[in-house]
Design brief:
- The protein is an alpha/beta fold.
- The chain has one domain: TIM Barrel (Alpha-Beta Barrel), CATH 3.20.20.70.
- It has helices at about 15, 20-35, 50-60, 70-75, 90-100, 110-120, 145-155, 170-175, 185-190, 195-205, and strands spanning about 10, 35-40, 65-70, 80-85, 105-110, 125, 160, 180-185.
- An 8-stranded parallel beta barrel has the order 1-2-3-4-5-6-7-8, surrounded by 6 helices.
- Helix 5 (about 90-100) links the parallel strand 4 (about 80-85) and strand 5.
- It is globular and about 40 Å long.
């Protein structure tokens, strides 16, 4: 039986993955986020070995809160709670065949993509960018109104908002109906990562 889907998702990128203090910062985030925090081992430009090592370093936290993005081979090699699939990844049903207990998520950027991912059988959606952000520079921000529409379309499917998420914006994200939030810089780059994770967790509940 699966554990409940966490509401706070700390996602890495190549820069974060290569930080020498990654494990220390992850420990602080875990203190603040508690059982509501999930780590996402992500980095599109990482080699397979780098991605595997990243997942292994994050898995020293309870493995029920580790998600592996894109790399299903890494997810099979490192104990994790789920996988997150991008547009270049295998279909949801292919991932489901590898491990029926995984949480399987999809990234979507508009209502059409959200509807397609829902029909494909995704367990949760990561929707964004909600606000302008450097990590999604090629996408215009959706804004809260479109986020609300996607949440309504997804019905009971959990929606995780991403893109320009800060602790100060978590409450308005919650009012939109989103189940949770995901962030890179607002968590990994905060001077007090435990405090940042704690604030986001408390305001999302």
């Amino acid at each position: 039986m699966r554990e409940p889907l966490p509401r706070l998702h700390a996602i890495t990128d190549e820069r974060v993955a290569r930080r020498p203090d990654l494990v220390e910062i992850a420990g602080e985030l875990a203190k603040g986020g508690g059982s509501e925090l999930a780590f996402h081992a992500r980095g599109r430009e990482l080699s397979g070995r780098e991605h595997y090592e990243l997942a292994g370093r994050l898995a020293v936290r309870p493995p029920g809160r580790l998600f592996v993005n894109d790399r299903l081979d890494v997810a099979l090699a490192v104990p994790c709670a789920g996988v997150h699939l991008g547009h270049g990844s295998l279909p949801v049903d292919a991932a489901r065949g590898l491990n029926p207990l995984w949480w399987i998520g999809r990234s979507v950027h508009d209502l059409v993509e959200a509807e397609a991912a829902t029909l494909a059988g995704a367990d949760y959606l990561v929707v964004g960018p909600v606000f302008a952000t450097a990590s999604h520079a090629g996408h215009a921000p959706l804004g809260l109104e479109k986020l609300e529409t996607i949440v309504a379309t997804a019905r009971t499917l959990p929606v995780i908002a991403i893109g320009g998420i800060t602790a100060e914006r978590v409450q308005e994200i919650k009012r939109s109906g989103a189940y949770g939030v995901a962030a890179i810089r607002a968590l990994w780059d905060d001077a007090d990562p435990a405090g940042a994770a704690r604030r986001m967790r408390e305001w999302m509940l």
